[in-house]
Amino acid sequence: MTPAEVEAGLREVFGDRILSSSAVEEGRDTAWPRRIDVAVDALEEVCRYLRDSQGFDRLLCVSGIDYEGYDESGKGKHIEISRYEEDGSPTPTKPGSGDLAVVYHLHSRAHGGEVAIAARVRRTEPKVPSVGQVWPTALWAERETYDMYGIEFEGHPDLRRILLPEDWEGFPLRKDYAMPSRYHDVPLEGAPLAVRTSPREVREEKE
What pTM was computed for the model? Predict the structure, then answer.
């Protein structure tokens, strides 16, 4: 089975809910892997179809994307990111407005192919259906994506942070995220290495 055959099968079944497709690596249009963008309301159905009818029996990973700073052609452009004062406290950052996306990376043991299924959502309403009913291992990866990007997976039976404390504020892999200077009463090293106090200076202060 070729990438073109996989895409053709999806378009035949789901029609215009298959939004676009592209090679994951430029210049590899006829090779694996391939990324296919789908409508959010088709995500779970597409994944189930790929598992049951196209042989994609393995979920490799789930990842998030923050499109803040991307232009209409999908190319990245410079944005002002969080900066830190000399004492390590973050400066005010303009809230992001770019879309977010979730990407499921799939593999077929039957024909050795890989495909990435992506669903893009508005930053103001970052919700997609969970595919934990299709691949149970997705439940862990969806929690991590929620923890880092704030994307909510509807239908997930236990959607909560998995790496950070429950009361942590913000989502660290969003481009407009500013590392807090403190967590409760604990100082955090939010400053870049260049402005942090060196271990030697810390020892000298204690002496």
Answer: 0.81
